[in-house]
Design goal:
alpha+beta, three-stranded antiparallel sheet, 5 helices, 41% helix
């Protein structure tokens, strides 16, 4: 079976409990999943911002949707972080599961350019 961070998060009682009891931890987990890649050995896993929001809302099981977390890095609530920021606590919890976080690096095809303003 290919490693799957979403599956590992759901089966980890510590992370599930932290999410259910802490909005800050939940937001920090959401933010970490945005614009980052996760590696378990050589296997890469990543998700979209909406996907990250859905994972967190499903873990919390509190009647939320991805929209409750989507772009939450712009909120000024104490303890919230911007999308792509990985707090020490989140990084450590993921490492305990065997996952390493690395910044997302898009691969451009030859001849494909991005707009830079």
């Amino acid at each position: 079976m290919k490693p799957n961070l979403e599956y590992d998060l759901f089966k980890n009682d510590t992370i599930v409990e932290k999410c259910k009891h802490s909005m800050v931890y939940s937001q920090n987990l959401y933010a970490a999943m945005c614009n980052n890649s996760f590696y378990y050995d050589d296997e890469k896993w990543s998700t979209s911002w909406r996907g990250a929001g859905s994972i967190v809302s499903d873990i919390r099981d509190a009647g939320e949707t991805y929209l409750d977390w989507y772009c939450s890095g712009m909120y000024t609530q104490e303890g919230y972080v911007a999308e792509s920021v990985v707090t020490d606590e989140i990084r450590l919890d993921l490492m305990k599961l065997g996952w390493v976080v690395r910044p997302y690096e898009p691969k451009l095809e030859p001849g494909v350019y991005t707009n830079v303003w």
